[in-house]
Amino acid sequence: MKKIYGLYTDDGILSKGAQALVDSGVHVSDVYSPFPIHGIENIIGMKWTRLAICAFIYGLTGLLIALSGMWWFMGIDWPMIIGGKPNFKFYQNLPAFLPIAFEFTVLCAAHGMAITYFIRNWTFPGSAPRNPDPRTTDAHFALEVDPHMNHKFSKQDIVNMLAKTGPVEIFEKNIGEKAHHLQPNAQVISKPKQSAVKQSAVSASSPKTSTSKKDDLTKIEGIGPKICAILHDNGVLTFDMLSKTSPDKIKAFLHAAGPRYKMHDPGSWPKQADLAAHGKWDELKDLQDKLDGGK
Amino acid sequence: MHKEAEIRQPLILGNKSYKQITDDVVAPVFGKANKLWWLVFGISVVIALWGVGCILYTIGTGIGVWGLNSTVGWAWDITNFVWWVGIGHAGTLISAVLLLLRQKWRMAINRSAEAMTIFAVMMAGLFPLMHMGRIWNAHWIMMPVALFPNNFGSLWVNFNSPLLWDVFAISTYFSVSLVFWYIGLIPDFATIRDKAVKPLQKKIYGILSFGWTGNAKAWIRFEEVSLVLAGLATPLVFSVHSIVSMDFATSVIPGWHTTIFPPYFVAGAIFSGFAMVQTLLLICRKVLHLEDYITVKHSEYMNIVIVITGSMVGTAYLSELFIAWYSGVEYESYAFLNRATGPYWWAYLCMMTCNVVSPLLFFSKRLRTNLWFSFIISIVVNIGMWFERFVIIMSTARDYIPSNWDYFHPTFVDIGIFMGTIGIFFVLFLLYARTFPVLALNELKSILKSSGDNYKRGDVSHPVVPLLASGVIASPSSTKSTAISHPPKTKISSKKDDLTKIEGIGPKISGLLQADGISTFEALSNALPSKLKEILEKAGKRYQMHDPTTWPRQAKLAFENKWDALETLQDELKGGKH
Q: Nearest by CB to B190, which of A102, A122, A129?
């Protein structure tokens, strides 16, 4: 499924927006910006990198290579007598080894870290850029929400919530494909109260009407987050709806979603969903104990 | 976000927005070169070709074509080598040391300074390579045993020799600087890639930008790598020129065998490096129209570094002389006496005037904020620093045995190679200036909100842009439609406010401000504290103790008729100060 992006013109607005979304329970998967936005990693819950530890290890390796190399060259492989003074012992030579040991440590630490940096970012000469919009390297800032990670909300919910955080554009796209612009519901945008952006965003934008109510289908054995999203996309939102869907139809949905979902057998899902829809959790549990992977 | 003191002068002028910064910096890349660029480029190419000719002649014939002889075994080439390496110090110093010290003014100059470093170290590397004579056997010294068997068996280079330390130091310095520079360039190449229209340009910058995406994780890594590389490069900078100085200091030749060489050489290297950065950036700023980013303040900061390091070098010269006399070592005393009064007295005099006397002029604020003067001094400093190396190295021509004494005459090949390296250096730099983002875009953008003049003045209403500019739905009334309000309108009105209402302003200062065109609360609220400070300083010593930091804020309240709020504020203030 495509990811949803909100495009902003200011890093401050984006940070506030990201905070508001996170407060509302939305999982923000990434942020694209023309320069580092300090503190954004704490807002969207991203871990700090451990590259510095790598650099330390590379440096230590360099130091060991340099010292043992010089000890071997100067003391064992070809001992040199310079100015009539043999100095074949490691500790006798150590002061003279220090400059090269230092340089080689720095060399290994710096280059090792740089190479790791490129590999971790997966960026190499000629790699295709993966930013959602070319403007994010200039003066725009994009916030990425992956509907897969936000099952509680429908796509329209996410768009509505995004719209309140002050973006200039909202669109969905797969990287490398064309963007498709999205519009929030009219009543969302006409609410001028900025305060609504904060905490109240959830209650304001996810109406509790039965039509858009969603159940957590992963409670059904055999359904994970991915399949849950597929079912939601196909309009199967609640346990009740799932219980009334024939296994063949579910099978068709899975087929359409790709070959990797072929092995799933939805035979027992409607039955399980029926129990769940009626709140018979104990019975459901008994049934699931008998089932193996939903089969 | 970090809040910068109001009294600090802004580092980005001209009401810039993020977009404006991109457009200004990438303009030379997409635009056509002007005549001045072609002129300087043409001259540089001619000189570079002359140098390349001389280099080829040396390689083809042997270094006998140089002016070296049995006594002066090291002269022109090592002078040029040390000179170029020294120049190559400023770049990494600016990018690494100033990064660790969180100096924001480095943002506008680090990119070009790093480029300069890399080109300068390349030029430096040419000289030892050529001095090896048969450079097609250069790999022997690197990989003696298994990979390239030579005729001598497993003979290793001497790892106890400062000359080999230097090989490691320079190559580590060069490659680490290159990586540091390039990692910083990648996001900016990506900006050019995403702005480019021509397919070829897009392709080239696409390759150069390594597919940079600019997502949050990549930026976290970017910042971590920059910081750790800066931490690694800082001791590296100091080690490189210390080791270069050990080429001399570990020998037992009078004038060389001194312990102050490492710090003294490092100070000299920073001194000459900053002078070269100053020269190049003052040209860049004019030719590429970057006056808003490379401001007089930047130039002043660099001049301050020049005057400090210049004074360190001067102190080193004097302590050398003192120790030569005080030690009572005849050879040592003679070497220094000979430097000053012997056949190379003119070089010594040149070194002393250019390096010790001329930078002292920067103690005057008027001179160090004068760009033409800075430009001239920056060139003078580099001439002086070349002579410093020449003077030190020519000491070998006056060592223990008078029969060894000789005078060095450079040949046309010597001169050609040296001039040629300057030519090649400028060719590389000019090409860089046309094709690379000469300012670190991503770093400049990150300081815009703390150091941009419009932001410092509080002139930018929070740049909120209408919700969903795609337009179908009207934007809510609470958001403002302008990204950046325009610079203060210079309304010509005869209206004058009573500025003495502002705490800290009396009738005298009020008169001064009005004389400078600040006659209303509105005008005062738009004025920068640094500007006000300037007005006061101009008016004389007695106004210097006044601190105008809060005046614009007070004036803003007065202008908005918020007298109660002003009174509360004034109660908190003491004489208009915090």
A: A129
Q: Are B119 and B273 in contact (CB under 8 A)?
A: no
Residue B150 per-residue DSSP state: -
- Cβ within 8 Å of residue B117, ≥6 positions away: B87, B88, B89, B90, B91, B92, B177, B181, B273
pLDDT in tens, B457-500: 766 654 444 444 333 333 333 333 333 334 443 334 456 777 87
Give the pairing type, strands A169-173 and A3-8: antiparallel
Q: What's the first-to-final CA gap in chain A, in angstroms?
A: 26
Query: B429 and B293 in one domain?
Result: yes
Q: Which residues contact B57 (CB under 8 A, 6 or more apart)?
A: B65, B413
Cβ–Cβ below 8 Å for B194 and A130? no
pLDDT tens-place string over residues A238-269 = 787 788 777 777 777 777 776 667 677 787 88
In a domain, B401, yes or no: no
Residue B91: domain span: 18-316+407-451
Task: Give CA–CA dist B397/B344, Å, rounded.
Answer: 10
Judged by CB atoms closer than 8 Å, whether chains meet at B19 and A129 is answered as no
Asked if B73 and B173 sit in the same domain, the reply is yes
B4 located within any domain: no
**Interface contact flag, A124 B211, Cβ < 8 Å:** yes
Separation between Cα atoms, residue B404 and residue B396, nearest integer Å: 9
Beta-bridge partner residues of A83: none
Q: For chains A and B, what is the number of CB pairs under 8 angstroms?
A: 258
Tell me how many domains chain B contains: 2
B65 and B159 inside one domain = yes
Contact between chains at A103 and B236 (C-beta distance less than 8 A): yes
Which residue type does B70 have? S
Contacts of B225 in chain A (CB under 8 A): 51, 113-114, 117
Residue B314 banded pLDDT, cuts 50, 70, 90: very high
Residue B224 resides in a domain: yes
Tokens standing for residue A164:
């309140």
Residues of A in contact with B216 (CB under 8 A): 30-33, 37, 40-41, 44, 46
Rounded to an integer, what distance in angstroms lies between the CA atom of residue B233 and that of residue B493? 56
B474 within some domain: no
State which H helix or E strand residue A142 sits in: strand A141-145
